Amino acid sequence: MAAKQHSRRESSAMTLFKTQSLRRRLVLISLITTGLTLLLANFAYISLEYYLAKRDTENKLQVLGDVISDRITAALTFNDKALLESNLNTLQSDGAIVRGCIYRQDQTLAASYHSKAHERIDCPNYLPRVDTLKTYNFSRFFPVTRAEEPIGTLYIESSRDQLLERFFQFLVFSIIIMLTAFALALFLANKLKDVISRPMRELSDTLTEILNKKVYSIRATKTNNDELGDLVDLFNRLLTTIDDENQSLKASEERFRKLTALSPVGIFQVDPNQNLQYVNQRWRDIHGMTNDHPDLQDWFEMINPKDLVNVQEAWNRLVLDQESIALEIRLTRPDMAYTWIHLMASALYDRDGQLLGYLGAISDISELKAAQVQMETLAFFDPLTGLANRRLFKNRLVTSVKGAIRSGKSMALMFLDMDQFKRVNDTLGHDAGDVLLKEVSNRLSNTVRENDTVSRIGGDEFTILLTDISSVQDVRAVAEKILRAMSKPIRVKGQDILTSVSIGITMTPDDSTDTNVLMKNADLAMYSAKEQGRNNFQFFSEEMNHSILEHLAIEKEINEAIERNQFTLFYQPKISLFDYRTTGVETLIRWQHPDKGIITPDNFIPVAEETGQIIDIGNWVLEQACRQISSLIRKNIMPADAKVAVNLSAKQFTDPDLAGRIRNVLEITEIPPRCLELEITESTLMDDVEAAIRIMQEIKSTGVSIAIDDFGTGYSSLSYIKRFPIDVLKVDRSFVMDIPDDKNDMAITAAVIAMAHKLDLNVVAEGVETDEQLQYLRLNNCDEGQGYLFSRPLSLGQLHQYLVISAERRSNSYEI
Ligand SMILES: Nc1nc2c(ncn2[C@@H]2O[C@H](COP(=O)(O)O[C@H]3[C@@H](O)[C@H](n4cnc5c(=O)[nH]c(N)nc54)O[C@@H]3COP(=O)(O)O)[C@@H](O)[C@H]2O)c(=O)[nH]1
Q1: Could you tell me the pTM of the whole model?
Q2: Ligand 1 centroid distance, CA of 698 (Å)
Q3: Which residues contact 476 (CB under 8 A, 6 or more apart)?
Q4: How many C-beta neighbours within 10 Å does residue 375 have?
Q5: Which of 11, 569, 672, 737 has the maximum number of C-beta atoms within 10 A of its C-beta?
Q6: ipTM of this model?
Q7: Residues with Cβ within 8 Å of residue 125, at least 6 apart in sequence
Q8: CB 304 within 8 A of CB 332
Q9: Which residues contact 70 (CB under 8 A, 6 or more apart)?
Q10: Which atom of ligand 1 is nearest to the CA of 588?
Q11: CA of 731 to the centre of ligand 1 (A)
Q12: Residue 582, exposed/middle/buried by CB under 10 A (0-12, 13-18, 19+)?
């Protein structure tokens, strides 16, 4: 308990001490240290003094006692009081001796002495016992002996007063010294205060000033070069560091403010208690808020109810798990404007990882969303016709097939391709083409039910999905309805245009349930409809697939034929209808198949055209024909002004290397450019008239001639023919073959010849087989003819022979 009280007192004293100013504590410590040191020193000194004085007195008593006891032996034996007293009186020499007493052996007083200063202190009549002797003086008993026989006792008592007086004097002296030392300590402590406490005070004042003024450029003054000076240096360095950091913090804060002010993004900060702490102007603009201190609750109230749950969940993740969040939110602003925003936010920590709040950025994505909607519309709908596009069609096809499988009903897929759309586009322009497409789209949409999907999947290609089909008859009825709808003329740019479509139809699940297969089926059926003469519909059949397989087999075989040099060239002469000279030859390829014999080009050129193999084949034909005919010309077997005509396929015609290739062939085969003529079908040229003109100009720049092949079948307009840089026009065999039976064809043939002459073109009639045809052509001034009447296509050897014979006949003036 006492210990507890003691320790409590001690701790409260310590607390009191610790709360004192440093200066006071320094003074206290100095005084306590000085006081304790002096006290201890004085105590030690006094104790030593006392001990030494006591020892001196005792020694002195011993000496006196020994001397006197020795001297008084006889006097005591004889009880000579006077002598005894005389001996005792020697004690007078020592002022400190209080009394001296001599006792006989029977312990009675024999003689006594006392100092004058202690008259009242007499010797007791009997020898006092040591334990009963009550005196604060020093005293001692000495036995008096004679022949070692005790005969009495000497008692001497010395006063302590002198000792005490000396002690007292010393104490007074010590106190004076202590007080002086205290004063000195106080003085030194004050000095120490100046040395230690003042710089500290100054540091503290500087710090207070910095804190009050918030000016971190203030520095403490260094007055000492000691440890305190070092402390001031360190303090100033610390201030410099703080100042630097403060400056950089200010700069970064300024940057942040400027950035946020200029930011196209709305920036906000929320404190850990979820109060909106800061928002920039852009944030206010996006939210249409003018309030200086917007409230987070107000912001939450702007959120579209459809997004509220999402936002709450994300917000909880942010504030509870400190997870970063990013989400798109719809807001209704105070001015009722509907806004889409993109919000990103994450927790903000200080350097020590203490949560400062949440920082976020908001951008207005309303325009982006609108564009997205527009893009989605564009992504799924054809902008011209408003019909579903290929992508939406494919989605619907997948869904419809699944629906058909589920419901057990049938679905029909129609693939429609407009007949001759390209011609309208090329002749009347793209605006007209657009009008046509829109009208066709309308008619198609009006022909089917609302549940059915009409799509425009390419330029002039459409698809129709007919769902819930009960019988093939229903599909047939729809296809017929479409053909009927298309048969009415469409008014475009003041002209009535007649258009038609070719329709391929496939059914699910009967034909397939695979959407890709269905697409392929419908496509095949559509091509079949085209082949059947257009403006009709065809249902898919397995035979169509077989023709595809056959197609693939041919493709493979063509590759082998190229590798194994199975192609050969035949030449069909062209004859002048004025003098029956051979004006040239048309090169016609043949395939010498090892198993199937000679295969004519109609059976492999279309496949080679589709697969692109025609480029290699065509290049080979061009080079080989030029080489062979050049050789015949050089040998004078072929007339020097005769031409070799080479057919160019559509793919070859659009090959960007064509002109270069021609130049190269002319060079390596050494055939004069005027001896080479390229035949390009009318339909190839009409695919893209402007491009065709450009390519033909390039071809013409090589010096070779161009002939339009199969003229009359490609629906070309006279205005284009006028612009084509061509030399020859070949009237298609289909017009010649019905001469003289078909008056129309005859009239067309005559008109074409006349028109070609007006355009300064040479006219060649194809497929001349009969004399009547020849006569009619001659009558109409057709320049040249080509056909079985003159010669079938000939091998090189046969041509050689033919030319030799013709030359001979000519020299014999033979005429047909
Ligand atoms: N791109 C290339 N096409 C070529 C090449 N070689 C030929 N062809 C084209 O193939 C088509 C068929 O040609 P082909 O079987 O050789 O038939 C030609 C003649 O044999 C045939 N002809 C000629 N005269 C008559 C005739 O009096 N009666 C009749 N029934 N047929 C006749 O006509 C074909 C030539 O026609 P054209 O080319 O229109 O002048 C054919 O389109 C060839 O062009 C080639 O190397 N590359």
Answers
A1: 0.47
A2: 25
A3: 537
A4: 11
A5: 569
A6: 0.95
A7: 108, 109
A8: yes
A9: none
A10: 6
A11: 13
A12: buried
CA of 588 to the centre of ligand 1 (A): 6
- What CA–CA distance (Å, rounded) separates 455 from 462? 6
DSSP letters for 244-267? HHHHHHHHHHHHHHHHHHH-SSEE
Which residues make Cβ contacts (< 8 Å) with residue 224, sequence separation at least 6?
195, 199, 232
Cβ proximity of 72 and 85 under 8 Å: no
Q: What's the gap in Å between 798 CA and the centre of ligand 1?
A: 17
pLDDT tops 90 at residue 181: no
Q: Which residues line ligand 1 (CB under 6 A)?
A: 572, 586-589, 600-602, 605, 618, 621, 647, 649, 709-710, 766-769, 786-788, 793
Measured CA to CA, the distance from residue 484 to residue 354 in angstroms comes to 79
Ligand 1 atom 39: residue of nearest CA = 710
Cα 602 to ligand 1 centroid, rounded to whole Å: 8
Hey, what's the torsion of the CAs at 250, 255, 260, 261, to 10 degrees? 100
Is the separation of the CB atoms in 368 and 375 below 8 Å? no
The full set of domains in the chain, from first to last, is: 20-214 (3.30.450.20), 263-363 (3.30.450.20), 381-540 (3.30.70.270), 554-732+794-811 (3.20.20.450)
Q: Which of 621, 644, 647, 798 to mutate to test the pocket of ligand 1 (most atoms within 8 A of CB)?
A: 647
Angstrom distance (rounded) from CA 607 to CA 611? 6
Distance 537 CA to ligand 1 centre (A): 30
What is d(CA 187, CA 317) in angstroms, rounded to the nearest whole number? 68
- What would the pLDDT profile of 372-399 be if each residue is shown by its tens digit? 777 777 788 998 999 999 989 999 999 9
Mutate to test the pocket of ligand 1, among 588, 609, 616, 665 (most ligand atoms within 8 A of CB): 588
Write the residue with the smallest CA distance to atom 2 of ligand 1: 647
Q: How confident is the model at residue 551 (pLDDT cuts 50, 70, 90)?
A: confident
